[in-house]
Amino acid sequence: MDANVRELSYAQAIQEAMAIAMEQDERVFLMGEDIGVYGGAFQVTGDLVHRFGEDRVMDTPISELGGAGVAVGAALTGMRPIFEFQFSDFATLAMEQIVNQAAKIRYMLGGNVSVPLVMRFPAGSGTGAAAQHSQSLEAWLAHVPGLKVVQPSTPHDAKGLLLAAVADPDPVMIFEHKLLYKMKGPVPEGYYTVPIGKAETRRQGRDLTIVATAIMVHKSLDAAAQLAEEGIDVEVIDLRSLRPMDTPAIIESVKKTSRLLCVYEGVKTLGIGAEVSAAIAESEAFDYLDAPVMRLGGAESPLPYNPDLEKAAVPQVPDIVAAARKLVRKEA
Amino acid sequence: MAQSTTNKAAASAHAANLPDIYRRLSADDLREALRKMHLIRRFEESAEESYMRGLIHGTMHLSIGQEASAVGICMPLSDADYITSTHRGHGHCIGKGAEVKKMLAEFFGKEDGYCRGRGGSMHIADVSKGNLGANGIVGGGIPIAVGAALSMKKQGKDSVVVSFFGDGANNEGAFHEALNMAAVWKLPVVFVCENNGYGMSTSTKRSTAVPNIADRASAYAMPGVIVDGNNFAEVAAASFEACDRARRGEGPTLIESKTYRIRGHSRSDRNRYRTKEEIESWQARDPIGIFEKELTDLGLITPEEIEKVRAEVEVEIAEGLEFAKASPSPSPSDVTRYVYTD
Ligand SMILES: Cc1ncc(C[n+]2csc(CCOP(=O)(O)OP(=O)(O)O)c2C)c(N)n1
Ligand SMILES: [Mg+2]
């Protein structure tokens, strides 16, 4: 490991990115519910308030719609707010400001302004918090032109994408999987960015392309390790960015492997998988396919409380292994 | 008109008890305010006519009858101050200093419009003058105004932000969340509810639990002020006071400007929810007429000067219409331009 690379958790990496952003640029400040002395519901802001003060790490009232609008207004007039939703589910209360305002103001005003706003959304299931605290709504926002939507899967990318988001002149929505917050990984010190709109190949393979997002990247890598023992050589692409989506990377990979499986935690239908599949169906890679495209996504239900049901509601490693076998060996 | 009443003796007698606001504003300021009120009126009448002739599509919300409110509120504002506006925002836009030719070009959907033809009436904005935009979402601009005020405070600027909205908007959650935050953080923002009696067809009586919107200010520990929205002097005085307070760092004010929209809600309104008598009673209280009478009575303007203002406005509108018609349309190939910053 390089001297300037340490092991940090995903949450620590995000915190470090926010600290660097605030040190570098006076316009950057944080807003959210209980992000000050409490440190944030997932301890992502942690002790930043002690370092930067209450003016730059601002606790808001429990007012998601109003708070989001305040962030939009501040971004429009010279500031660079980073707004934390306590849970991504609560973004539903702020959809007005995100979808009708932040995403569209630049366009509606004929390009005369931009909205340099970053929003962070702790998302995903696996915490036993049930239906209103476990959703993966990233595809909702990815459907909206004017927004950029990213989903880092590693501490390295969580830091680099956040710094890229702060530097971006347009609104960037960052979906952070709650189960990843404690995951550790190598993170370089200092400032660096990970480009928005670029996928990353996490594992090279010849037999099957798995396109995955967030925690499903790790599950897919676990599945790939098992499948390797059976002689199935899987390529795993971490999508990282939903809008803009790196379709060239998917197309190139599928041209090599001739098979595509898309794995994501959001509800299966009308989601990320549909878009990834269509990207192949509409491209020259379609002619290379040796098997139907397949999706593994969240169940067509709200997220349940019971732990066994909760696991059953989202793709797990054995599901990915079984799907891969089916595609590669045409097993039933 | 009240020209006949302006004999010099009467004028100086009135001048002795000139309202404070008329001492604060110069004769030029007052003439400019009257010009803007006429400009708004004639702008909207011309836009309406162009619409009927099929030159403008979509819909629009006219503020005829509410001109004193828009112009009076904007009196203390400079280009460094911001406003957020509403679907009924033509008056606010002109009040904040926009050029009618670029507004008309926008209505005609042209490249020379303020929003390059992408926004239309409902998103009209002249950002260079501090207008952050009309809004198609009822209440949408209120939290944004609070954010702009937070931004000014953080940047140590002396600017204030005015958020215009209607009586209907005061029942949106955004209104309540925004007022609360502005008060908690003592931000330099002035909330201006233009209460024209109705949100589309629904009267405030049927929609709002308190008799006055201003009553809601007490829930957010800020002053709530009621003004006659058809009386320029009253509106301007309240706006100066609220803006001064905001600039002193004492926090927000809620002004309720009681007024009336003479036209229907939008192009599709059949006026089934109000009586002809009600409309006529408000037409008799036309804000432009009231302002002109007061200015002449006080000897602050002559009938000849008023005629000159009207003539100037006619020229500006006619030139604006020509400009708008001559401006090029956007190219269909540019449909996705301006979604993101290049
Ligand atoms: C969130 C939202 N709900 C409903 C509408 C449809 N709508 C447009 S204007 C309007 C009435 C608004 O009333 P008010 O706030 O009093 O403003 P006014 O039209 O009287 O100026 C309605 C219901 C909308 N544009 N946005
Ligand atoms: Mg109304």
Can you walk through the features of this model?
The complex is a heterodimer of chains A (332) and B (342). Chain A is an alpha/beta fold. Chain A folds into 2 domains: 184 residues, 3-Layer(aba) Sandwich (Rossmann fold); 128 residues, Rossmann fold (3-Layer(aba) Sandwich). Chain A is 36% helix and 20% strand. Chain A contains 12 helices and 14 strands. In chain A, strands 3-2-4-5-7-6-12 form a 7-stranded mixed β-sheet, with helices on both faces. A 5-stranded mixed β-sheet of chain A has the order 9-11-10-13-14, with helices on both faces. Chain A has a two-stranded antiparallel sheet with strand order 1-8. Chain A is globular, with a radius of gyration of 20 Å. The model of chain A has no long low-confidence stretch (mean pLDDT 97). With 342 residues, chain B is an alpha/beta fold. Chain B has a domain of 218 residues: 3-Layer(aba) Sandwich (Rossmann fold), CATH 3.40.50.970. Chain B is built from 13 helices and 7 strands. Chain B is globular and about 50 Å long. Chains A and B meet through helix 3, helix 4 and helix 5 of A and helix 7 and helix 8 of B. The site of thiamine diphosphate has 15 residues of chain B, from strand 4.
CATH topology-level name of the largest domain in chain A: Rossmann fold
Q: In terms of quaternary structure, what is this? A: heterodimer
Strand proportion of chain A: 15-25%
Biggest interface, CB < 8 A: A-B, 40 and 47 residues
Spatial arrangement of strands, main beta sheet of chain A? 3-2-4-5-7-6-12
Helix content of chain A: 25-40%
Spell out the helices and strands of chain A N to C. EHEHEHEHHEHEHEEEEHEEHEHEHH
Query: How would you name the CATH homologous superfamily of the domain at 65-90 and 124-315 in chain B?
Result: Thiamin diphosphate (ThDP)-binding fold, Pyr/PP domains
CATH 4th-level superfamily of the largest domain in chain A: Thiamin diphosphate (ThDP)-binding fold, Pyr/PP domains
- The overall strand count of chain A is 14
| CATH class descriptor of the largest domain in chain A | Alpha Beta
* Distinct helical segment count of chain B: 13
Structural category of chain A: alpha/beta
Q: What's the helical proportion of residues of chain B?
A: 40-55%
Shape of chain B: globular
Principal-axes geometry of chain A comes out as globular
CATH architecture of the largest domain in chain A: 3-Layer(aba) Sandwich
How many beta-strand runs of chain B? 7
Low-confidence stretches of chain B: 1-10
Category from helices, strands and their pairing of chain B? alpha/beta
